[in-house]
Amino acid sequence: MTQSPKALRLGMLTPSSNTVLEPETQALLAPMAGAVSAHFGRFRVTQIGLDTAAESQFALEPILVAADLLADAKPDVIAWNGTSASWRGFDTDRRLCAEIAARSGVQATSAVLAFNAAMAALGVKRLGLVTPYTPDVQAAISRNYAAHGIDIAAEAHAGLRDNYSFAELSEDRVAQMCRDVAASRPDAIAIVCTNMRGARRAAALEAELNIPILDSVAVTLWGCLTKIGADPAPLKGFGRLFALRAPGDAL
Description:
The protein is an alpha/beta fold. The chain has 11 helices and 8 strands. Helix 3 (60-71) packs across helix 5.
């Protein structure tokens, strides 16, 4: 389909070693081809942990430089398509998005801000948490959500640190992790990592488990569309998420 000159453009900041979110986002956007396009910029992220070396990857300036380059494409929104604020603290993404908007003049959101808006729209109080991360990172995510009024009803994690390796977890493995946490009957299951393969299995898992599945890649896309006031309903075949409504300022 020919791209309209007035098509919406979504700018997405991507961890350098992520190989999942770009093809998954493009696949999810297929029903809106010609009306919405996604454009990506990278900054270096290779390891996920709570140590100083891993933390230093999320210094503001390299992220803002990547956002500056994305802004050259005149997107309608810029999203940090990564989940670091889930363990670093939600305020880190609020500050980042404010800096991006102030510096580029483009409104900004993130995967984690979109997660929190989606959970609020669903009324989530008990969450099933699925990640590829190590136990200490998983525990930090659990603490942050507990402080946000959301208890982790059950969790599954793969114990990995190398960001590239997260993409090597198969869709079947991710689906089984979701089934494992579903036994506790949470209000929703969150696949927290944009380098995990959950987006295209979400609708089938929802039908099987009767629990909303919030995949990070899908949630970021939903958040971008919601932020700019675009209707995500054409994507509802990919899961209940795309039928949700939230005010743009919630992101």
